[in-house]
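1st attempt posting a full record on here, be nice pls
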Amino acid sequence: MSAPSPASEPTPLVSVITPTYNEAENLPILVGRLHAALGRVPHEIIVADDDSPDRTWEVGEQLAVDDPTVKVMRRFHDPGLSASVLDGMSMARGELLVVIDADLQHDTAVLPEMISHVQSGQVDVCVGSRSTEGGGYGDWSASRRFVSWVATLIARLMLRVPVSDPMSGYFVVSREAYERTAPDINPRGFKILLEFIGRNRDLRVDEVGYEFAGRVHGETKLNRSVIRSYLLGVAELRVGRQINPTFVLYALVGIVGLVVNSVVFTFAEAVGFPEITTGLNDSIDPIATSFLFSVQVSILVLFVLNNEFTFWEQRYRGWSLAPAFGVYELMSLFGTGIHVAVFTTLQNIGFLLGVLGEGASRVVQNLIGAVVALIINWFLNTTYLWRRRQR
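the predicted structure (as tokens):
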């Protein structure tokens, strides 16, 4: 990290924190834009870099030689967006804390207006929004707009956040609000704005619209792992740290599997699958054939989703996929057997039959069997399959 400021240096009103990873080309441009936007407002710029391979931290240190407002934090531990921002905030001296990405996609021209909203004391947080009046997503593709829309919908439905663009990484927060909220924030959370407004519902929030710009230098960091991290963050905010958020993802994937199973089974029934004849000339009813087919398809779908999504860090690749799927198949069939066994046992003892009646009791009995199978499969998968690849 660059040398601390001398005691004679005036205390800034605004501290700008920019988390960086491979933004060496963009950082000098961002610093220039921030100076132009903030003008005579006393400010400092804190670069919280995750030890970028392109040496973004070194570019920041070179800027700091001639620009005392630039401070550089080269981080070697706990990489991630939220952790970087929180580390930057911990060394900030300003009364107003600004968070902005270094990829030049956030419009610094609206920053003075955002700062004035918080400085007035009327709000605690002002969000740079792409979804409110005056905002826009630029030249985003339809698929990326759809992903953003779904992510926003999830945040607004599950967390009840009072903003139109909860996915924004561009905002201003007062020091007082930061100090009230920071002790509760999960440094591994995906979107730091969601951490603030999702954990402290008393924060007063408003938005200023801006047009999202296209990336010029560097590569976008949006991929499946980012989407997964976002859903983990929302799950953790919704259910708390007492429940493993990865298990929540595992359960959500399980629900997808149930839907796939139902759709495939319905399709197989409509097509009319033929009977299966064994070597003993015994026949399996076509309905059973449809059931077996739908189970197999859902197992395949569940393996792919869990491998590429739920257990991203431990995922299998290449030739290791085949034996991994074989193990998963056996575990899933074992879980299916547990499901059937629990359901059959509860049926035989008439569990809740006298209370709910035959139809409703069968639904509850089946649900209990499914939950028991889910928990057992979770234990098996995390203990014997994906756990083996953890570092």
